[in-house]
Write a structure and sequence with these properties.
With 203 residues, the chain is an alpha+beta fold. The chain folds into 2 domains: 111 residues, Ribosome hibernation promotion factor-like (Double Stranded RNA Binding Domain, 2-Layer Sandwich); 81 residues, SHC Adaptor Protein (2-Layer Sandwich). Helices cover 28% and strands 40% of the residues. It contains 4 helices and 10 strands; from the N terminus they run E-E-H-E-E-E-H-H-E-E-H-E-E-E. The protein has a 5-stranded mixed beta sheet. Strands 6-7-8-9-10 form a 5-stranded mixed beta sheet. It starts with a strand and ends with a strand. The N terminus is likely disordered.
Length: 203
């Protein structure tokens, strides 16, 4: 595995944006790092109101290269995108285009969010588990309903308004988001319904 490369990006308001560029079992050269900084930096310059950090991970899946990018906005929200292509540069370009589209959609609301939220988003610590697959329809009946835990990880639950939660889910390209409702001080869920609308669960 190639070691992570942490490189500086463009400057805003006297501060330097930081990138962490990682190749999973593939080498990433200086030319690709420069391309990432230039192209992604120009996208973020248009939409980000404060300096941010960005993590970009390149990997290989069968015959395609995969590029995953996560941008951490200083308000606490994150934007994420993924691109696939047979060429590594094209994979990044596809990822960058998706990031641009997501940020462009929320350009005005991100500006309002920057002005209205004086404090960064708070996060609650939580545990996240991966449960073993039950084998599907053709599998034998399980002997117990007790799930088998494959892995346990730490995760963070953001404290947001419902509107912020929907925006965060869209920016991250996620189908569902668990969050703490700031106004009601309880855990809520927003998710994308099959009909295209957004569902909101408030226990």
């Amino acid at each position: 595995m190639a070691p992570p490369e942490e490189v500086s990006g463009y400057k805003r308001e006297g501060r330097i944006m930081r990138y962490q560029i990682t190749g999973k079992q593939i080498d990433i050269g200086e030319a690709l790092q420069t391309h990432v900084q230039t192209e992604l930096g120009s996208v973020l310059e248009k939409y980000s109101q404060r300096p941010t950090d960005a993590t970009v991970i390149f990997s290989k899946a069968a015959h395609q290269f995969v590029c995953e990018a996560v941008v951490h906005l200083s308000s606490g929200l994150n934007a994420a995108a993924k691109g696939h292509a047979t060429e590594i540069y094209a994979a990044f370009d596809a990822c960058s285009e998706k990031m641009d589209k997501q940020l462009r959609r929320y350009k005005r609301r991100l500006k309002d969010h920057h002005k209205d939220r004086t404090e960064p988003v708070e996060f609650l610590g939580a545990s996240s588990y991966i449960l073993a697959h039950d084998g599907g329809d053709d599998a034998a009946e399980p002997e117990t309903l007790q799930p088998i835990i494959v892995a346990e990880m730490e995760t963070k639950i953001p404290s947001l308004s419902v509107g912020e939660a929907v925006m965060q889910m869209e920016l991250a390209g996620a189908p569902v988001l668990v969050f703490r409702n700031e106004k009601k001080d309880g855990v809520n869920v927003v998710y994308r319904r099959d009909d295209g609308n957004i569902g909101w669960i408030d226990p």
